[in-house]
C-alpha cells in the first residue's frame, strides 16, 4: 500500500489481440475517489503484449498531475517488465541479457517516461477469475477492438482513444445474477452477488415457494438494484438470455403497450418486470452475458446460492 500525500488513483488495465498477432484492443478503468473514467482503443495489427503496454500507457497519459497509483493488470509481462527487467534493459541500451533487442522497446520507453512523476504500485491479478474491475477492463479492450473493426468496415470512426460514457462519474457496481427452480415451476431461489466500488462483496438471496428459473433471474436483478445505496453505474452479469434480451429490447416496449406482447397476450412475469422497471430508476445499467460454464467464481457463487435457496424452499 502506498503512503503518500499525492492524489490517489486506482487503474485497471487490459489488452489483447485476436488472433495474436492481429487486430487488437486495449481498455482501462481509472478510479479516483467517487470519480471514474473508462477508456479504450484498438490497432489493426498488433499483439497481446503491445496492447497490455498500451493500456497502461494511455491510462497514465490521462493524469494531469503526479499521483499515487495502484495499478492492476493480468499481464505478468507488463508487471515484471516494469518492476524487474526495465533497468537492465536501459543499462544495456535496450538490449536483453543475451544481446538481442528488447521486444516492444518503443512502448517500454514510452511507459518508462509515463511513470516518472508518479508513485506506482503494480499488482498482478489472475485474468478471467471474476475480479469485477479487471473484467471491466477486459470488456473495454474488447470494445476497443470492436470499434476498430466497425471503422474498417466503414461503419464508424475509430478514434485513437475513446472515452466510454459515464458522464456523471457514477460509482461502478457489478451484479452477478442467478435463478434456480426445482422442476419447471416449483420451489425456486434467486441470488445476486453485488460488488461495490470498494470491492466489497454482498450476497442477496431468497426463495419463493413456486416460480420458474426465469422469474428468479429477473427477481435477482430486482434484489441487486434495490440494494444500491446510491445512484450508480451498474454492470449486470447474467447467463440468462431471457433476462438480458428482454431487459434491453422489450422492457420499454412492453411498458408502452400496457404489458402486452405484439400478439396481444399478457407478458409473462409482467408483475416482476414492472418491479424491475421501477427499481432501474436513474441508474446507468449495462447488461452483460456471462455463462456459468466459464471459470467465473463470482457467477458460480451466485449460482450455488440460488440452488441452495431453491432446495431450502422445497419439501423437507
Task: Provide structural commentary.
The chain has about 325 residues and is α/β, with parallel strands linked by helices. The chain has two domains: about 5-165, Ribonuclease H-like superfamily/Ribonuclease H (Nucleotidyltransferase, domain 5, 2-Layer Sandwich); about 170-315, Ribonuclease H-like superfamily/Ribonuclease H (Nucleotidyltransferase, domain 5). The protein has helices at about 50-60, 75-90, 105-115, 130-150, 215-225, 240-255, 270-280, 295-315; strands at about 5-15, 20-30, 35-45, 65-75, 120-125, 160-165, 170-180, 185-195, 200-210, 235-240, 285-290. The model has no long low-confidence stretch (mean pLDDT about 85). The radius of gyration is 22 Å and the shape is elongated. The strands form two sheets. A six-stranded mixed sheet has the order 5-4-1-2-3-6. Strands 9-8-7-10-11 form a five-stranded mixed sheet, sandwiched between helices. A hairpin with a 4-residue loop joins β1 (about 5-15) and β2 (about 20-30). The chain contains eight helices and eleven strands. The termini are far apart. The longest helix has 21 residues, at about 130-150.
Indicate the CATH topology of the largest domain. Nucleotidyltransferase, domain 5
Across the major sheet, the strand order is 5-4-1-2-3-6
**Rg on CA atoms, Å:** 22 Å
> Main sheet?
6 strands, mixed
- The gross shape turns out to be elongated
Average pLDDT, rounded to a whole number, is: 87
CATH second-level architecture of the largest domain: 2-Layer Sandwich
Amino acid at each position: 500500500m502506498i503512503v503518500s500525500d499525492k492524489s490517489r488513483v486506482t487503474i485497471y488495465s487490459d489488452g489483447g489481440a485476436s488472433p495474436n498477432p492481429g487486430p487488437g484492443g486495449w481498455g482501462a478503468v481509472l478510479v479516483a475517489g467517487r470519480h471514474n473514467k473508462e477508456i479504450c482503443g484498438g490497432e489493426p495489427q498488433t499483439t497481446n503484449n503491445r496492447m497490455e503496454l498500451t493500456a497502461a500507457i494511455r491510462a497514465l497519459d490521462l493524469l494531469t498531475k503526479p499521483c499515487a497509483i495502484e495499478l492492476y493488470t493480468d499481464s505478468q509481462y507488463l508487471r515484471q517488465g516494469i518492476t524487474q527487467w526495465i533497468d537492465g534493459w536501459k543499462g544495456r541500451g535496450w538490449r536483453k541479457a543475451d544481446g538481442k533487442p528488447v521486444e516492444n522497446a518503443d512502448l517500454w520507453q514510452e511507459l518508462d517516461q509515463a511513470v516518472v512523476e508518479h508513485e506506482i504500485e503494480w499488482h498482478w491479478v489472475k485474468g478471467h477469475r471474476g475480479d469485477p474491475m479487471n473484467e471491466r477492463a477486459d470488456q473495454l479492450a474488447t470494445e476497443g477492438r470492436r470499434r476498430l473493426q466497425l471503422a474498417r468496415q466503414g461503419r464508424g470512426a475509430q478514434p485513437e482513444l475513446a472515452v466510454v460514457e459515464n458522464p456523471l462519474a457514477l460509482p461502478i457496481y457489478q451484479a452477478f445474477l442467478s435463478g434456480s427452480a426445482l422442476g419447471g415451476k416449483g420451489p425456486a431461489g434467486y441470488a445476486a452477488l453485488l460488488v461495490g466500488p470498494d470491492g466489497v462483496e454482498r450476497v442477496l438471496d431468497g426463495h419463493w415457494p413456486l416460480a420458474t428459473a426465469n422469474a428468479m433471474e429477473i427477481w435477482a436483478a430486482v434484489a441487486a438494484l434495490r440494494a444500491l445505496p446510491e445512484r450508480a453505474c451498474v454492470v449486470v452479469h447474467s447467463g440468462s438470455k431471457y433476462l438480458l434480451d428482454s431487459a434491453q429490447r422489450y422492457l420499454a416496449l412492453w411498458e408502452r403497450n400496457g404489458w402486452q406482447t405484439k400478439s396481444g397476450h399478457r407478458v409473462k412475469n409482467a408483475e416482476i418486470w414492472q418491479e424491475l422497471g421501477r427499481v432501474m430508476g436513474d441508474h446507468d445499467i449495462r447488461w452483460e452475458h456471462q455463462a456459468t460454464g466459464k471459470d467465473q467464481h463470482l457467477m458460480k457463487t451466485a449460482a450455488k446460492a440460488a440452488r441452495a435457496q431453491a432446495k431450502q424452499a422445497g419439501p423437507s
